[in-house]
Write a structure and sequence with these properties.
Two copies of one chain form a homodimer.
Chain A: E1 2-3, H1 14-18, E2 23-26, H2 28-45, E3 48-49, H3 59-64, E4 73-75, H4 78-86, E5 91-94, H5 103-111, E6 115-120, H6 123-135, E7 141-145, H7 159-169, E8 174-179, H8 190-213, E9 220-223, H9 226-229, E10 240-241, H10 251-256, E11 266-276, E12 281-284, H11 288-291, E13 308-310, E14 316-325, E15 330-334, E16 341-342, E17 348-352, H12 356-360, E18 365-369, E19 376-381
Parallel strand pairs in A: 1-16, 2-18, 3-10, 4-5, 5-6, 6-7, 7-8, 8-9, 9-10
Antiparallel strand pairs in A: 2-11, 11-12, 11-17, 12-15, 13-14, 13-17, 14-15, 18-19
Helix pairs in contact in A: 6-7
């Protein structure tokens, strides 16, 4: 065991000592660099940027994504749509299959001046949106495509269903097609990631071609996941890219290979509350309520458990991960127990998130770090719910 | 495929149709029966009832636990302690190892009239609490015991450490000992559960005996987990039982065998948003933000995935579980695909939680059902954070 406490890497001063733990830290410098990286890549190919705001759920973060104005953007709940509409965003895509019971809330946003496009993958949904258009208000819709068997969407080669949905939608406007390469999270290596991105692109553009050949304008061809957004060799035919988790990145994305650990902008600040020396454990006050129970790296080459353990500068401690967690307890262990540092009760650590969307949703605010990375300068509220 | 939609089991009327989904439903009749079951058992053995309020995080639920007055109770965060103190609870145990930085908030509650006892398992914590007592205020403490290697606590047979902690604590009062049989969640069968309960009891009473023999009064001997609370053959020597999840129960507890599915008082109301017929999937609008990512039944004999699927009356649909989830999507599959009912877009389902603490923490309120079980009569707020 190495005694590191004297190095001051675990005994904070100032605001990092004063804040109650566990809490969520955000490094805006890293976040800005992540945003700039994707924006520059999209500008180079002339492709639109419609980030998914489900990761951040924060007006302050969303505003940092756009040099001017508000959006366009993607949301995963109507609560997000309403919050961003209130903050001045006027062009949103609600990227979860629509149900008739949710159309009145979408319509209310339209009446207040925010266009919220919906997505659908069945004739029954198209007929419901068409019926709503005849009775109330035409809401623009995109046909969701299933490019890789991940979850929802029309098979892009099922031309009959694609055209049936498009024709039943009138008088609601058909805005275009949308897909999400969810299976790209399981791609390994640059070639596999590039292939996933190309498959996503080809699927979306092929479906758009079918619709256009049948006389539908199909102005929007939307694709995107963080792994494919950073791996595409071509974006030809795509009009916009949606990605969400890139804004913060996380250990799953680092494991996939689309970011480095030092790009991860989020961490959970935790305090040591005990030890089990016979097991080589350090107990911290960040359980699954603070970290989430997402174990997304368990299926990767190297599991990071429930998070990677860093010092107060955000530098990973070799081999230290959160092995397991209960509601308010995290169990930190070291891959090589002989290298476990001695961290006294009261020492503070930063835990990098396995899945930034899941970790962030456990918190009501971001504690925003200053330029030196070890002082909290402000807090930004997050919202949640539906 | 069976068409069940005409049966009205999935097309709600009234408040279950009007409410936005996903949302959290609470059946107070089931909850009251669960509370009564534990209370009656404890009254029969003359053992105190100090329920863990971390599951409910609701003043309304907490009040239903006590026929008269408020508490005593157990909490897992200082935010819970502050909320329940404000609601009139005056005797709380903060059952997560104390750190010096948290003592000022504990002291503030004492000054406002609420006793918050803390727990500790090391000499360094005892010295910090003693030092705080000399400088500010004596806060009562319990020594945490590790009865089964689950997580934190002093080995009850480490008499030297136990007595060392007790003697260093003065002038802060030593209230007693506390343990939690976390490993009882992995016990299978009545005999194993009874053995886990007896081990927990024996461990706590043995440590109390050691302390008393050395001249410490040790008035409190506290034990409890939901599995052991319902499996104890004897409570001799215990002064109180802590349990939390029993108030709602869940699929993990049903898998352990301490409740039936029909005792589970919580469920998530979700809406069907799509289908993948080729895979036999129904897509619902409850993802891990609504259900949590807890897969606690995966290690049991029968996995329930991320939840068991029920009709609007809360009756399980044979073989239907939530196979997987993304942020706002749940994938429902059937163990026998030929028995998958046809549920149209817009149909509503109730999902029983794998782990009630984890599911509840994803929501800001309970939608409370009326006596007939299919009408929402009120909402009860929940709180979270630290």
């Amino acid at each position: 065991m190495t005694n590191l406490s004297h190095q001051g890497l675990f005994t904070p001063a100032g605001s990092l000592a004063a804040v109650d733990t566990p809490c969520l830290l955000l490094d805006p410098q890293k976040m800005d660099a992540n945003i700039a990286r994707l924006r520059q890549s999209l500008e180079a190919t002339g492709t639109g940027f419609r980030p998914h705001l489900k990761t951040a759920k924060s007006v302050d973060v969303a505003r940092r994504m756009f040099a001017h104005g508000h959006g366009p953007a993607t949301v995963s709940t109507l609560a997000e749509a309403e919050a961003f509409a209130q903050a001045g965003f006027t062009d949103l895509t609600y990227a979860v299959g629509i149900t008739p019971c949710k159309l009145p809330r979408v319509a209310a946003l339209h009446r207040q001046g925010t266009t919220v496009s919906v997505i659908l993958d069945s004739v029954e949904q198209a007929e419901a949106v068409a019926d709503f258009a005849r009775r109330h208000l035409p809401i623009p819709a995109l046909v969701e495509l299933d490019c890789d068997g991940h979850r929802s969407g029309v098979c892009p080669d099922d031309h009959e269903l694609l055209l049936d949905i498009a024709s039943r939608l009138a008088p609601a406007p058909l805005l275009g097609v949308l897909t999400h390469a969810g299976e790209s999270y399981h791609a390994r290596g640059k070639a596999a990631l590039a292939a996933a991105a190309e498959n996503e692109r080809a699927c979306a553009t092929r479906a758009a071609h079918i619709l256009r050949a049948a006389g539908h304008a199909c102005p929007v061809v939307s694709a995107g996941s963080t792994p494919t957004a950073f791996s595409a060799q071509s974006r030809h035919g795509l009009t916009e890219v949606r990605a969400g988790v890139f804004v913060f990145f996380d250990l799953v994305q680092a494991g996939i290979g689309v970011c480095r650990h030092e790009d991860i902008a989020l961490s959970v600040l935790a305090t040591v509350i005990g030890h089990q020396p016979s097991k080589g454990w350090i107990i911290i006050d960040a359980g699954w309520t603070a970290l989430s129970a997402d174990r997304g790296t368990d299926s990767q080459e190297k599991s990071q458990g429930l998070g990677m353990v860093c010092d107060l500068n955000g530098v990973p401690l070799p081999g230290l991960t959160v092995l397991d967690a209960n509601q308010e307890h995290g169990i930190v262990a070291c891959r090589n127990p002989a290298c476990m540092p001695h961290l006294p009760v009261g020492a503070r650590l930063r835990i990098l998130p396995v899945h930034a969307c899941a970790t962030a949703t456990q918190h009501d605010r971001y504690h925003v770090l200053g330029p030196d990375g070890n002082e909290i300068t402000t807090t930004w509220p997050r919202f949640r719910g539906w």
